[in-house]
Write a structure and sequence with these properties.
The complex is a heterotetramer, with two copies of chain A and two copies of chain B. Helix content of chain A is 37%, strand content 20%. Chain A has twelve helices and 14 strands. In chain A, strands 3-2-4-5-7-6-12 form a seven-stranded mixed beta sheet, with helices on both faces. A five-stranded mixed beta sheet of chain A has the order 9-11-10-13-14, sandwiched between helices. Chain A has a two-stranded antiparallel sheet with strand order 1-8. In chain A, helix 1 packs parallel to helix 7, helix 8 (211-224) packs across helix 12 and helix 9 (242-252) packs across helix 10. The longest helix of chain A is centred in the first third of the chain and has 15 residues, at 6-20. Chain A is globular. Chain B has helices at residues 13-18, 23-48, 63-72, 86-92, 96-103, 137-151, 169-181, 228-243, 272-279, 283-294, 299-322; strands at 5-6, 78-80, 157-162, 185-191, 194-195, 198-199, 219-224, 249-254. In chain B, 42% of the residues lie in helices and 10% in strands. The longest helix of chain B is centred in the N-terminal third of the chain and has 26 residues, at 23-48. The radius of gyration of chain B is 20 Å and the shape is globular. The chains are: A alpha/beta, B alpha/beta. Chains in contact: A-B, A-C, A-D, B-C, B-D, C-D. The interface between A and B is large, with 43 and 49 residues. The complex binds thiamine diphosphate (2 copies) and magnesium ion (2 copies). One magnesium ion binds at residues 162-164, 192, 194-195 of chain B.
């Protein structure tokens, strides 16, 4: 065990997978000589050479498509989007080819796409988005959103060895802010299994990514009024751990679904609708959702603060549920 | 302006020998041409009989182009053939009855009824099933070539696209990546001069699609797609060049789409004279007479081959019709892959 | 008034808009000489000429981007996707440029994109999809899904005159199957307003597109058991008429949300979650959802029948609610 | 292989007069160059003072390219400048204080704090705000040209892109459509030889990006992007050709990105000799000495211009700092457009 930042855990985990499996290679814009926009692959090209750490042209469709083809030829590609936002240029390759090939033609597409996501530092409309909801709706794609350094390492290993395409959303605002113990040996975290970030009895929060920490802060505030909050860190958005969520709801009878992506049609709606349908008899209050408003992500600090759910917003929502 | 090399027609038998085909091979090519057209003609009948759901596409006029290129591929090479390239499936050895089963949405089709018409491929034969979205398979084929390059394998990927689809970004991104990295891939353009009802001059502004190859850093070659031997020779050159590390080639096979875009389309927009002109160079007839002139194909041999193809197709049809429709619950199979799915030759 | 097919209503409506407003032009693959894959623009090029009925290259990004630019220069472009499925190739232009330009830069993008959608005739995975949920999640895009010939005509006129980008989903399975009276004069149907397709007291169905008729069939079956079903045809998915939906729920206390698109993360989740949150006290049964399973759209008839919600499935769902 | 025309440098004053610039114009160009660099230098200071949230980009080395092209545009022409093209905003007449307000996320920036850095444009000046996604504005610029063509207006659209972004599909689709329809558009490539850390040979396989123009059916021109007069002359030719119905041109302005990709990047990957070489042809210094040699610019006049620019920027900074940050509730404004939004000159 050693203490590592979320970023270091991703970088070390990726290097470890490349060392143990020659089929794994990295491709993306500026991932080689430069080591990636966030330096996740710093030093990789020296160690693995230019054909396993590939500086791609500025062409996301080529990057995703090339990963698809290489994976069908037996490789285990890991594509890096410079920012998650740019995956919109690879959308067709993912939803049309990669997502459907196994179901249609029996050809698995074991690719991993790393997506530096999320806001919090005035990245503006095109360097701050959380596009996981869009992909979670597409049958055939898996989406993971680790919140802790340990999960970041373990879910990356699981994503790479998974026989289906996996979108790996790494939250930029956690990169250097979050430090924790990470096992030195190789670990895997099962895709589709949630993690109870904090146990509680009165209200449940179902969330993922950076919002796990926002909930934690909010839960501290509520603890002062003796309201005990359970935080379910989903970790995987598709497939998602319905069992763990319903279990927590049965325990607390009140639930808040929280995410950083925009509200309407966000994946929180799927979770809330499922709870409302399957735990109808267990609920003592309506399933509440907190998410970003339906706008692009703003640049200026006061606007971005109003966009991203803040600790105070979450605390207020939890209080409302507790008092319902 | 960049002009692609325009390939000569193939003359003598000796020239063909140099290109690597002996008489047996030539007869096999002829047989594959007959089989390719036969499958699509039977399919057409099935469609009219109401046995094929949805729409139905054929590659009539493109048989020599698809058979010629596929014949030049090595056993470990891979490809992403399209809706005009039945010949590729045939040459790689797919069993015709499976194709009929695919047409009819039966469980024994390569996609088990999940997808239709030519949206299929047997990956054990080194083929990857196309998607409708054109030319989305070009970046995928480029990725196959990338894998070969990374592993230092002497294998080649072949990616097909239509002249219409050449307008889309995926064609550009794939050729840009393959060209800058000199990957072992051959881009084959099925230029049948029409994209549904849209003529070529609205899809690209050059004389030939292959003219753009040089701006991607590799050679462009234009060949008469109704001349199976010329197509074979140029494909062979391109594939072996790629195999030797010489990088990509763009091979443009010029033909005319001899039927509508799909079965519902009467192609009223194609000028009659154009059709009549191209009807004169029917790929099958052309090669048949070449064989008679240059490789003493006689009536007996010809009938033997034709008869064999006919029997094969009859049996295939019967077997396909016996194949059941899928069970509803099979719908849910395989949305996500299982580890066992990876135990395939191509995932090796 | 004259009786028209859904297809005729779209075609006539579009021609009418082009006659009254020179800024309106049509662009798409094979829309000119051929009159479009479904013949919606048949004869248009003869009437309006090749520069108002433009045969585009096979390039969806160029088509959508060109519409965006032309609209900013004062035109009212109407793009036709040959099939809705191919909009995946124009995804980036829509979500990155068209959707955000007004909010970011104050530049409205009044474009209309016609999307022949939906299954029912063995179109297979790439000629049958209903992608409205993916776009309804993107702030800045409007999505309309007419079910009747009158709404098809009225919503098309509204979409063209709307100052925002509007995705107009026309269901292929309604093209020739659905005939009804359509006003001869120009009509507009407000975007964002639902229509009560059928009044009822016991159970509500909230749906749109072809599923309106599937619900109607199912409702007939339930009428035989004296269960009266109210059918709310949303017509617009974004913005959607929350008021009309909640009103119907308050009346019936039981609701089924139904759509042809796949279930997980489908827009039905947003509607169900909203009802469950805002009408919690009014509900006598859990909000039920019926949608396609989470797979691509299959080709073979028995599979497609199992994929698209059938009358029997909807009837069973309604009974379950009625008996809850 | 297709070789684009390589433009000559501009020599004498008379040559410039032919190109349509009198002495007053030349001094205005010089002033715009100073203003362009001055704005970005001040921005850099603001950034170091912690007054600019997020990241910060400059176009150092590209001033002549952006000012030269913009100077050749007509009043009713439109453009989609990028993150290296501050000069375009300056020439079109955006007020510097608004740019500083934009940098700092204040309400008086063109995007009112909703977007940052150069993601802005004043549509009343005929400019359309860029998105980050490159080169997504090329199809949009093509659409502007399409509108002009449909209405038969003698207006031209100018679309900018980087040599890196030339690899993406949008560049290909835009040029394919513009070329097949001969639309009135000029594609300007800011070729600063690097795409973040990626060198040109990994983005395209030809010598020049402009070499590909001919495969799209129009002319490609390569010009030294540090020579403002040569850029102006070639842009003028291209724009007037487009205006006359002669179709598109691809104008490639070759420069070197003289700073990191953005403030955080020290550009360690750019070879020192390369930087030293290009430092010798600084666009501003180059034009200043040209003016002294060819248009008798003297110290007095020079100081007067420089002083004016300095005062303007000082005032602009003060005014921008007085501009408030947006109110949180402004976040929700304008997700959907209102009919009134359409009452703008460009929507006319
Ligand atoms: C991205 C995309 N847009 C639209 C279509 C609809 N479509 C199917 S085939 C076709 C024409 C294709 O022309 P071409 O590439 O020349 O191939 P051909 O059918 O002529 O062999 C079109 C527009 C498609 N398949 N993919
Ligand atoms: C589609 C897309 N992918 C990735 C990026 C991230 N990115 C921003 S600038 C840049 C390099 C652009 O290079 P070039 O086109 O040469 O423009 P330059 O910055 O050199 O002027 C990259 C990769 C982007 N903006 N858009
Ligand atoms: Mg064609
Ligand atoms: Mg550059």
């Amino acid at each position: 065990m050693a203490e590592k930042t979320y970023l270091q855990a991703i970088s070390d985990g990726l290097r470890e997978e490349m060392r143990r499996d020659k089929r794994v290679f990295v491709i993306g814009e500026d991932v080689g000589v430069y080591g990636g926009a966030f330096k996740v692959t710093l030093g990789f090209q020296e160690e693995f050479g230019p054909w396993r750490v590939i500086d791609a042209p500025l062409a996301e469709s080529a990057i995703i498509g090339a990963c698809t083809g290489a994976s069908i030829m037996g490789m285990r590609p890991v594509a890096e989007m410079q920012f998650a936002d740019f995956i919109s240029c690879g959308w067709d390759q993912l939803v049309t080819v990669a997502a459907k090939q196994r179901w249609r033609a029996g050809t698995p597409v074991p690719i991993t796409v790393r997506l530096p996501s999320g806001g919090g530092f005035s990245g503006g409309p095109f360097h701050s988005q959380n596009p996981e909801s869009s992909f979670a709706h597409i049958p055939g794609l898996k989406c993971v959103c680790p919140a802790t350094p340990e999960d970041a390492k373990g879910l990356l290993a699981s994503a790479i060895q998974d026989p289906s395409p996996v979108l790996y959303f790494e939250h930029k605002h956690l990169y250097r802010r979050i430090k924790a113990e990470v096992p030195d040996e190789r670990i895997t975290v099962p895709i589709g299994k949630a993690r109870i970030h904090q146990e509680g009895d009165d209200v449940s929060v179902v969330t993922w990514g950076a919002m796990v920490y926002t909930s934690e802060e909010a839960a501290k505030e509520l603890a002062e009024d003796d309201v005990s909050v359970e935080i379910v860190d989903l970790r995987s958005v598709m497939p998602w751990d319905k069992g763990a969520v319903l279990e927590s709801v049965r325990k607390t009878s009140k639930v808040l679904v929280l995410h950083e992506d925009t509200r309407s049609g966000g994946f929180g709606a799927e979770i809330a609708a499922t709870i409302a349908e399957e735990a109808f008899e267990d609920l003592d209050a309506p399933v509440k959702r907190i998410a970003a408003p339906d706008t692009p992500v703003p640049f200026s600090p006061p606007l971005e603060k109003a966009f991203i759910p803040q600790v105070a917003d979450v605390a207020a929502g939890l209080r409302e549920l507790a008092e319902y | 302006m960049a002009i692609a090399r325009e390939a000569e027609p193939v003359g003598s038998l000796s020239e063909v020998r140099e290109a690597g085909l002996d008489r047996e091979d030539l007869l096999a090519v002829y047989r594959n041409l007959l089989l390719t057209r036969g499958i699509e003609e039977r399919g057409h009948i099935l469609y009219r009989q109401g046995k094929i759901p949805g729409s139905f596409y054929t590659g009539r006029g493109n048989e020599a182009a698809s058979v010629g290129v596929a014949t030049a591929m090595g056993p470990d090479d891979v490809g992403t053939p399209l809706h005009r390239d039945m010949g590729v499936h045939v040459v790689r050895g797919v069993e015709p009855w499976r194709i009929f089963a695919q047409y009819m949405g039966r469980v024994d089709g390569p996609t088990h009824g999940k997808d239709g018409n030519v949206h299929m491929a047997d990956s054990r034969l080194g083929l990857i099933a196309m998607v409708s979205h054109l030319p989305a398979m070009l970046p995928v084929a480029t990725g196959c070539a990338l894998a070969f390059r990374i592993r230092g394998e002497r294998r080649v990927a072949v990616g097909w696209f239509g002249e219409g689809a050449s307008a889309r970004g995926d064609a550009h991104e794939a050729m840009t990546f393959a060209g800058t990295r000199r990957l072992p891939i051959v881009f084959v353009c099925d230029n049948n001069q029409w994209a549904y009802s849209t003529p070529s001059h609205l899809e690209y502004a050059t004389e030939h699609v292959a003219d753009r190859a040089e701006t991607y850093g590799f050679e462009g070659v234009v060949v008469d797609g109704t001349d199976v031997l010329a197509v074979y020779r140029e494909a062979k050159r391109a594939i072996e060049r790629a195999r030797k590390g010489g990088g990509p080639t763009l091979l443009e096979c010029v033909t005319l789409r001899m039927e509508g875009h799909a079965v519902h389309d009467d192609a009223f927009y194609v000028p009659k004279p154009m059709l009549e002109e191209w009807a004169k160079s029917d790929p099958l007839e052309r090669f048949r007479s070449w064989l008679r002139e240059n490789a003493d194909l006689d009536d007996e041999e010809e009938e033997e081959i034709a008869g064999g193809v006919k029997r094969l197709l009859n049996d295939a049809l019967k077997r396909a019709e016996e194949s059941p429709l899928p069970e509803p619950d099979q719908l849910l199979d395989g949305v996500f892959a299982s580890p066992e799915d990876l135990d395939t030759p191509h995932h090796k």
